Structures are given as C-alpha cells and as structure tokens.
Amino acid sequence: MKNKTIQYFSDEYLESCKKMTPEQILNFLESFRLLHLEQKKSKSILISIKIPEDLLASFKQKSQILNVPYQQQIKKLMKDWI
Predict the structure, then answer these.
(1) Residues 6+ apart with CB under 8 A from 60
(2) Are 53 and 76 in a shared domain?
(3) Dist. CA 38–CA 28, nearest whole Å
C-alpha cells in the first residue's frame, strides 16, 4: 500500500485562497487536474533557468547523497509545491 502525504497549509495561504475569484479557483483546479491525470507520459519541455553555482552544487550534492537524480528532485519539488 502506498503511503499518502498529508499536506498542511499555513494560515497565510488559507487567507490568500479566500480572496481568490471563482475564475482563479477554476483555473487552479483545472491545472491541478491536468497535472495529475494518469497519462502514459506527459510531454516535457526544455527550460533555461539561472541558479547560483553554489546553490546548484549543494543541491546536486544532496541529491547524490540521497541517490536521487537532481532534475527528478526538482520536478518533485515543483509538483509538491503545486
């Protein structure tokens, strides 16, 4: 059985959600639905981003210690944040 992660929301985040318009809520829900659709594999795109060298080096080092490819970890962090 796969463990499910419990997500906790800060009071500030919940307050900001109360200010969302119905259209913003629908856009968020549709984006969330599309992100989590069970598809064979969604198309990926190549992006360019500037990251301080020391930050990237530390991130890669920690990923290597945890035996996780660093780009995979970046994608996981993005999904968790959404």
Answers:
(1) 70
(2) yes
(3) 18
**Domain identity same for 53 and 77:** yes
**Digit-coded pLDDT (tens) for 31-55:** 888 877 765 566 788 999 999 999 9
Q: In this structure, are residues 79 and 35 in contact, taking their beta carbons and an 8 Å threshold? A: yes
- Nearest CA among 44, 38, 72 for reference residue 80: 72
The whole domain housing 53 covers 48-82
pTM of the full structure? 0.50
Question: Do 54 and 81 belong together in one domain?
Answer: yes
Split into its structural domains, the chain has a count of 2
Q: Which residue's entry shows tokens 């968020």? A: 28
In this prediction, residue 3 carries a pLDDT of: 65
d(CA 61, CA 2): 28
Beta carbons within 10 angstroms of residue 47's beta carbon = 5
